[in-house]
Design brief:
InterPro entries: Kinase-like_dom_sf, LRR_Rcpt-Like_S/T_Kinase, Malectin_dom, Prot_kinase_dom, Protein_kinase_ATP_BS, Ser/Thr_kinase_AS
Shape: elongated
Membrane topology: Single-pass membrane protein
Pfam families: Malectin, Pkinase
Oligomer: single chain
Number of helices: 13
Enzyme class: transferase
Distance between the termini: 80 Å
Low-confidence stretches: 18-24, 247-254, 297-301, 462-474, 607-646
Radius of gyration: 35 Å
EC number: 2.7.11.1
Helix content: 25-40%
Strand content: 15-25%
CATH topology of the largest domain: Jelly Rolls
Largest sheet: 6 strands, mixed
CATH superfamily of the largest domain: Galactose-binding lectin
Number of strands: 22
Mean pLDDT: 79
Strand order of the largest sheet: 2-3-1-15-9-12
CATH architecture of the largest domain: Sandwich
């Protein structure tokens, strides 16, 4: 620039003082940024300042500081000084090969390890050298607080997370940090606040904070130009009693009135503050006692913090969403110890208090079996309780059998899946220390691990379901197509309703199709179709056409077991321990000769019914409605079911 052409400048020491003999003058503002001759030298104007780097509006911090905005555009070699000079900033460097990169970056994530998450939504980034200056400060020792949080590099396991931001930190010309890496200091986590504090002297009414890249770290990950120092907020507060104020007092007006007003205001403020503190302490004490009581129920090792789970799921990112249902949403996450987990965010409409929730979780955690999904823990904070389960790589059985990405499961695998589910239910009903009736056994609640071993999920959580989204009525919890008649009709609940649902799952696994389908009008309902083949002495025609090879003896055994389990009367269904014995061949599976009465009634009343196509909440599925000649409810049982749903 013209002012510098005939000047002797010391760029390294940031001493831009022009040679007096050249009669040059520094532009307005830049003269305030000189280390040896700053503005207000010997006549301080302020005793503190705080800056929210990159923000366009002031923010009140939890430390009672008012953080001033810092949204100025700083180019390759530019500076900025506040209109009422108390602080300034300068930038040196250009982002190489970057396309339209901004020196101010933004994130909408929640930040951990801080009470002031708003301070970290914006950050100022520099390609090389970034300085902040305190101007006209009263001399003395100050506490300089620098606050950082890395969010340019995500925590997810991808190439974008491989970036490293490394720089040096100088305060008053003294190097305080060498090779400083925000993410490394935060324990390898992004979106986590890091605070650095230093005690430094101010001797010439001037403070300089310098963040220097020095060519360290990465330059091109995740995007070209994302390198160099970055900072979210900073502040400088005196370690002494200041004699200057940050704002000038009004010159006009009565001093007496001002003093009285200040005294009265302070008195009122003191009373309000005292009352607020008293209420806050009482509330905190009550919450603390409640929390301790909940911890005593669940056990501390099983309780995880909301912050930890939010970080594990990348702030419950849609990219980590595994599924949704009436209970809420399920997200994939990774804990700090490296374990992958499924985090279930229960709906606020679970109609259950924290005490009941904690008691139920403690009960469920005592139920352990190789064919049950393992519950790692829970979170008791907030209005949406969280459950943390083991993560199973191969998803649900319904997805594997008839989802869009359905797998070609061979017969031995399918048979072992049926046998594993039977063993899990047998444990819940007869072997565990507490008796558990699942109430919602279905293909989507059976998950498959890396070796395709089945594991039952959501056992014991029926009371946590949302009536409006999970086919749950006031008395009945479950899904049509899997509901036992006595449960759907009268709400009568025993372990035999799980036996009925298990029989349906076995038929679906054998046939490779859901219990209700409109692809073939002769095979709409799996019950009628299977019984028709069984009575025609063609039971093996049930088998999924994709199975080129299968054990006929095992298939026939599984069909007989499924037909026994789906008998209309609960007394005719075997206990799950006997089901396991029949599947393994330890006990002979008897021939089933009695067709359930509910199937007979369907056929007498006209065949197609709305039993499979109407859920408990009364909402119709995508299946076509029966025509006018058969649209009436086909039996008292079905009428009761539909009335129950309405």
């Amino acid at each position: 620039p013209s002012w510098a052409r005939n000047s002797q400048l010391n760029l390294v020491a940031n001493n831009f003082g022009a040679d007096i003999s050249s009669n040059s003058a520094l532009p307005t503002g830049l003269d305030c940024l000189q280390r040896n001759t700053p503005c207000f030298l010997g006549s301080p104007k302020s005793s503190s300042f705080a800056v929210d780097c990159g923000s366009d509006r002031p923010i009140s911090g939890s430390d009672n500081s008012l953080y001033q905005p810092d949204a100025a555009t700083l180019g390759a070699a530019s500076y900025y000084v506040t209109g009422e000079p108390t602080w300034g900033a300068s930038n040196v460097g250009r982002f190489m090969d970057a396309s339209n990169v901004s020196s101010i970056i933004y994130s909408s994530h929640q930040f951990l390890n801080t009470l002031d998450t708003e301070l970290f939504r914006n950050a100022r980034m520099s390609p090389s050298s970034l300085r902040y200056y305190g101007i006209g400060l009263e001399n003395g020792n100050y506490t300089v607080t620098l606050q950082f949080a890395e969010f340019a590099f995500p925590d997810a396991q991808s190439w974008k997370s491989r970036g490293r931001r490394v720089f040096d930190i100088y305060v008053q010309g003294e190097r305080k940090e060498q090779n400083f890496d925000i993410r490394k200091v935060a324990g390898g986590k992004s979106y986590t606040a890091v605070r650095k504090q230093y005690t430094v002297p101010v001797t010439k009414n001037f403070l300089e904070i310098h963040l220097f890249w020095a060519g360290k770290g990465t330059c091109c990950i995740p995007d070209q130009g994302y390198y160099g120092p970055a900072i979210s907020a900073l502040s400088a507060t005196p370690n002494f009693t200041p004699t200057v104020r940050n704002a000038a007092a009004k010159k006009n007006g009565s001093k007496t009135g001002m003093i009285v007003g200040v005294i009265v205001g302070l008195a009122v403020l003191g009373l309000v503050a005292f009352a607020a503190i008293f209420v806050w302490r009482q509330k905190k004490r009550k919450l603390s006692l409640e929390q301790e009581e909940l911890y005593s129920i669940v056990g501390r090792p099983n309780v995880l913090s909301y912050g930890e789970l939010r970080s594990a799921t990348d702030n419950f990112s849609p990219d980590n969403l595994l599924g949704q249902g009436g209970y809420g949403s399920v997200y994939k996450g990774k804990l700090t110890d490296g374990r992958f987990v499924a985090v279930k965010q229960l709906s606020e409409k679970s109609h259950q208090g924290k005490r009941e929730f904690a008691t139920e979780i403690e009960t469920i955690s005592r139920v352990q079996h190789r064919n049950l999904v393992k519950l790692y823990g829970c979170c008791l904070e907030g209005n949406k309780p969280l459950l943390v389960y083991e993560y199973l790589e191969n998803g649900s059985l319904d997805h594997a059998l008839f989802g869009k990405g359905k797998s070609s499961l061979d017969w031995p695998t399918r048979f072992e899946i049926c046998l594993g589910v039977a063993r899990g239910l047998s444990y819940l009903h007869e072997e565990s220390s507490i008796r558990v009736v699942h109430r919602d056994i279905k293909a989507s609640n059976i998950l498959l691990d890396a070796n395709l071993n089945p594991k039952i999920s959501d056992f014991g959580l029926a009371k946590l379901y949302d009536d409006q989204k999970t086919h749950v009525s006031t008395k009945v919890a479950g899904t049509f197509g899997y509901l036992a008649p006595e449960y759907a009709m009268r709400g009568h609940m025993t372990e035999k309703i799980d036996v009925f649902a298990f029989g349906v799952v076995v038929l679906e696994t054998l046939a490779g199709r859901p219990n209700y389908s409109t692809k073939d009008e002769n095979k709409v309902y799996i019950f009628e179709w299977v019984w028709e083949l069984y009575e025609d002495n063609r039971p093996l025609d049930v088998v999924d056409p994709r199975l080129e090879e299968f054990d006929s003896e095992e298939v026939l055994r599984a069909i007989k077991v499924a037909l026994l389990c789906t008998q209309g009367s609960p007394h005719q269904r075997p206990p799950m321990s006997r089901v396991v014995a029949m599947l393994t061949g330890d006990v002979e599976a008897p021939d089933v000769v009695t067709k359930p009465s509910y199937i007979t009634e369907w056929q007498i009343k006209g065949g197609n019914t709305s039993y499979m196509s109407t859920d408990v909440s009364g909402q119709s599925s995508s299946a076509p409605r029966p025509n006018s000649s058969t649209s009436q409810t086909s039996s008292p049982f079905l009428s009761s079911v539909i009335d129950e749903g309405r």
